[in-house]
Amino acid sequence: MAVLADRLGYAELWVGEGAWDAFVLATALGVATERIPITVGPVPVHVRDPVTIARAAATTAALVRRPVGVALGTSSRRVVEGMHGRSRSRPAATLAESAKAVRLRLDPAGGPLTVAAFGDRAIAVAAEHADRMVLDLVSPELAREYRAKLESMSGRAGRPVPSLAAWIPAAVDPDPDSYAQIMRTLAGYLGVAGYAEMFTAAGFGDAVEMARAGADPDELLRALPPKAAATIGLVGDARAVSARLEAYAEALDEVVLVPATAGDPGGERTLTALAEMA
Description:
By secondary structure, the protein is an alpha/beta fold. It contains 14 helices and 8 strands.
């Protein structure tokens, strides 16, 4: 996928933090590609201290010989406490402390500082410290609401408004496997704080309540209406996706594609079609 995005001329490659180490993976992808800048994260700030984050970004930048940005976030209790065994106390304060410290140390890596935000306190951190704020799984309508908050808080902070990006699931002309992959992804976030409120605002509150009550993944998948993929995503035929992309472009400075790969190895069909649309 990284090699394809590089060849198609995409402006940036984002490497999320998951079961793998994001900076190691970013270095491998940078070596495999030719010119595409890289942003790593959102990195959970309770898990890595600011020096470790800045040092890792600078090391990756030196090895791939191009700018590397960092995205910071508070992640979730499921990840921070369940996976890492660390306390997720004072999330907004910890995010602010990390953003301020990483900002001072990030110059050698050369890329932007991004803050992932949903709640008002995290948006305030982005307004005060970040070059860019990133959302995840939002409709264009919700993205506009977040932009208004970011602009207001940036004005109060006396700073230029950071650019606004959002990670958006994408599948152009999805086959059943592609569609099912995106729906499973959405269902997995129904009970996660921050995302749950976003799903409720998007009109899927019944599924959120089921997740909070402990429904199993298959029940949640059945409860999530089929329209969810097109509401919180770029999913459908080329005409529908193009229109939806325009709606996102009115609300965001950057659309970050998360292409389905089931039924579309490497996301090639989707990435190629969206490169042509852009």
